[in-house]
Specification:
By secondary structure, this protein is of the alpha/beta class. 46% of the residues lie in helices and 13% in strands. It starts with a helix and ends with a helix. The structure holds zinc ion.
Length: 454
């Protein structure tokens, strides 16, 4: 009987899931994300007399400056496979040797390909002091959960057909997860930029490496004054910036991030090579883009601070702070990758920590204690199941997740609750423009379905 009942439950779940699947192709969010893929087409773009940018090979651009007697490479991509392809294609443009590599920040998607560009021991490898501060801090503390969450956010665990893109890069998964983060520690810098601005002269190319805290505290932007090209690293790409990554991180200083954009503006660049998307060429467009980008970040920061000082909690802040339409309508500020709501919560947490200020939350009930009381009010756990079924059918997906958590706090092994929760997450994923959220929902749903079938 139990087996038959479980079978029937799954049949209903599968039918619902197929119902969701039928909607998949129709959602505006997935259509928009698919349109986005044109940003990641493979190309080498000449942006000034001597600067070439390889885009779409893997997940982040690799740039080449052709100097008098050598090349300067800015960032190296995520892995040596794509790195070697780019190196080969760059050779068709110039066969000069690589004299220096400059890394904008210590994230693996920008330095995993380093070995493909270091042709000899003479190659200078420039990074900023405090290089890889973020990952070193986590490693020293013995914290590694960000790897799993990072793989979920990037969609590494999903089937290829489930991934559209990750918002600022095409779907790409070297080593499918953890190993990507390991390989980055093999990078051996030879030169360090210190202080606010370091002038570097190599292969006849004069560069300025400028400290630019933002996504990371080891971030710098590279200014090439002769051709007025700026390489922003991940403090700029065409998307609402990832001011908080759902993989988890220490506070990303939103205020400094806006200041870093302002500093780049101050250089008066004519070409902007972002951390992930295609370069922007033309002084007017570069200035307008950076101005809006900085102002939108600053607006969210200022409004959040205003709300915090008015006593609002994070849940209230995300309703209080609304990005003005003049910014929200700009394609390069749409939440393809980061999301303003997460930034608002992160600013609160970054300055005031986890306690939201409401005394209710000083010592809350445990999940199971609260769930027992909710179930009691609803008329028992079975009533919660029924409410959750109804909510799923009516498309009230976030409420399904809440009810599912109550049920699973009381019935941790319930396959029915897991599958229902997975169905709701799948539906939420399909209506989600923020690719990291989409990937995280789908990865969580996959995990729940796998647990339910055990
Ligand atoms: Zn990146």
């Amino acid at each position: 009987m139990t087996t038959l009942w479980t079978f029937l439950q799954r049949l209903v779940a599968v039918t619902l899931l197929l119902g969701c699947a039928a909607v998949i192709a129709e959602t505006e969010a997935s259509r928009q994300l698919k349109l986005r893929n044109s940003e990641f087409e493979k190309d080498i773009i000449k942006v000034s007399d001597s600067v070439y940018v390889a885009v779409g090979y893997a997940v982040s651009p690799v740039s080449m400056i052709v100097g008098e007697d050598g090349l300067v490479i800015i960032d190296t991509g995520i892995d040596t496979v794509s790195g070697a392809q780019i190196r080969q294609d760059f050779r068709k443009i110039s066969d000069k040797p690589v004299s220096a590599v400059v890394i904008t920040h210590g994230h693996p998607d920008h330095l995993g390909g380093l070995a493909a560009f270091v042709d000899s021991d003479d190659v200078q490898v420039w990074v900023r002091e405090r290089f890889q501060d973020e990952s070193n801090t986590l490693r020293d503390a013995g914290i590694n959960r960000q790897r799993k969450r990072g793989a979920m956010q990037a969609g590494f665990l999903l089937k290829p057909e489930q991934r559209i893109n990750n918002g600022i890069a095409k779907p790409y998964w070297p080593n499918r997860g953890g190993a990507v983060f390991e390989s980055a520690h093999a990078a051996k810098p030879t030169h360090f930029a210190t202080g606010d601005r370091t002038r570097v002269s190599v292969a006849g190319v004069e560069l300025e490496l400028v400290a630019a805290d933002g996504e990371t505290s080891d971030a710098l932007y590279i200014w090439y004054p002769e051709e007025r090209v700026i390489f922003s690293g991940d403090n700029f790409y065409k998307s609402w910036p990832n001011l908080y990554p759902i993989r988890g991180s220490a506070y990303r200083d939103v205020r400094k991030w806006a200041m870093a954009i302002g500093a780049m503006l101050g250089e008066q660049p004519e070409v902007l090579v972002g951390g992930h998307t295609r370069p922007i060429v033309g002084a007017d467009e570069v200035v307008e883009t950076l101005t809006h980008y900085r102002d939108a970040i600053q607006f969210v920061f200022d409004k959040t601070v205003e709300g915090i000082n008015g006593g609002l909690t994070p849940n209230q802040l995300v309703e209080y702070v609304q990005l003005p339409q003049k910014y929200a309508q700009l394609d390069y500020l749409r939440p393809y990758y980061g999301n303003p709501e997460w930034a608002i919560r992160s600013i609160f947490n970054g300055y005031l920590g986890w306690f939201d200020g409401n005394a209710t939350n000083l010592f809350p009930l445990s999940d199971a204690e609260e769930a027992a009381r909710i179930a009691d009010m609803a008329g028992g756990v079975q009533a919660l199941h029924e409410r959750a079924d109804k909510a799923l059918v009516s498309g009230d997906y976030q409420w399904v997740l809440s009810l599912s958590d109550y049920i699973l706090a009381l019935e941790p092994e319930s396959a029915q609750a897991r599958i229902r929760k997975a169905d709701a997450m799948t539906a939420l994923a399909e209506s989600q423009l923020t690719a990291t959220a989409r990937n995280y929902y789908l990865s969580s749903a996959k995990e729940l379905r796998s647990q339910a079938s055990q």
